[in-house]
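Please check the following for our workbook:

***
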Amino acid sequence: MTDWLDADQQRDWRAFIEGSIRLIDLMDRTLRERHGLTLAEFEILVRLSEAENQSMRMADLAERAYYSRSRLSHRIRTMEARDLVTRTQTPEDKRGVIARLTETGAATLHQAAPTNLHTVRTHFIDLLDPADLQAVGRAMRAVTANLD
């Protein structure tokens, strides 16, 4: 027997799906139009900017940026061609690869970050009551922990 969602659960689930997709689409479209970056590329630049020495092993970056290793490798290759990142072998084992944020990548992130922040604030943060925002954060951390 299938345990169907009740009407309220269905309404809230669909609102979550629609809102998430539309917000992510808006963030991606805005970054592309204004800065020539996809949201995925922006997230990679953010992760690298926050890492020690603005660099990270590709395997760790894939995990933190929610990519398969092969998909991340392709994305990094295109970003490397635009001088946003560089790749080098790890000095310890010569098998691993390190992605590093370049000066161009850091400058691009510095220019794009206010645009992304404005989109997030205008279309998400500022719309929610602080208690609702905290509830969304708790809910999504629970979902993430379960999926990990």
About this structure: Helices lie at 7-35, 39-50, 58-64, 69-81, 103-123, 130-147.
